[in-house]
Amino acid sequence: MKRWWNLATLLSRPRPRVGSTPAREIHRENKWRLLRYEPAAAPRERPRTPVLLVPSLINRHYVLDLMPGKSFAEWLVAQGHDTYIVDWGTPDDEDRYLGFDDIVDGYVGRAIRRAAAAAGTERVHVLGYCLGGTLVAIHAAVRPEHVASLTLLAAPIGFHDEGLLSRWTRTRSLDVAALVAATGNVPWQLMQSAFQLLRPTMNLSKAVHLVDKAWDDEFLDGFLAIESWGHDNVSFPGACYERYIQALYRDDALLAGTLSLSGQPVRLERIDCPLLAVTFEHDHIVPPASAAVVLERVGSPDKVHLHLSGGHVGAVVSKKAASSLWPALSRFWLERDALGTSTPAQPPSQRAPAPKRAAAPKRAAAPKRP
Q1: What is the pLDDT of residues 75-105, one digit of tens each?
Q2: Homologous superfamily in CATH for domain 2-350
Q3: Annotated active-site residue in 130, 146, 161, 273
Q4: What pTM does this model have?
């Protein structure tokens, strides 16, 4: 009975609060801003190095702060991590001229430096999710000075894969220059339609699952929160999109070693900080091989691959993530802090010696099911 009542009243059901973990703005520039999450109580001794979360450029940041109980940011704050996040905001018409270098070198760089300055450290642990991971990997390859470690969460690095998104984007019928000339900023509706075509039966599958689980209030709240986020998308600045598609999807320039950032060559082998690459078995947006290839290219001797079940979004925000993925990420940062991969900001004469490198790469086993 409860199932049918919940379905009948679904449209009038109060929507769950999304992006509700308390945070304050510490930097704003153009449309984007940097947020620092507030500790819920007087924090115990904090981990040494702050954590900066960089979401995809075309999605709202609150996927990492979805709702109480299903918020990675909320969980990090509860563990004592000094946590920051980039909110990309909403581009306007004038942002059609915003370039790839403006965002990846300028905005990402300033977010990293502002977070480090606010925390009183020289470096920060940087986590990039999806396209956000691609951006921070490119930045770290050219500007590594303030990156204590790099966590790439379902982040595409190799773009010539067998996934449908890669194949579509490389077809000659997609005239990127004409699209940008006609639209300015590439409309989010167009991009969302492309993602939905990756799994044409996804909406039907969700409807069936909804009917099956409608009796569960907790499931319904989580379902509505994800749907709210999934339909709250961001258009892509035109100039940045044009170079992103040509250089990465079509030229595979990041792996080919032909990409540049503000005139500087992007070489993945220059990344020598600790690296954690997270892939998901059923990720239909970023195939695991596309994300895992970074482990073969970076120069760091300390690199870990965590491969989990689940999909591109569900594995990050599910209840299971709180007992598997999230603790694994926190452990990675805490272990590197203990090894001395990051140090508080000090005058040059007082700086600690460079940390010793691990002897060999290692692969983390997937956590056991709770």
Answers
A1: 999 999 999 999 999 999 999 999 999 999 9
A2: Alpha/Beta hydrolase fold, catalytic domain (3.40.50.1820)
A3: 130
A4: 0.86
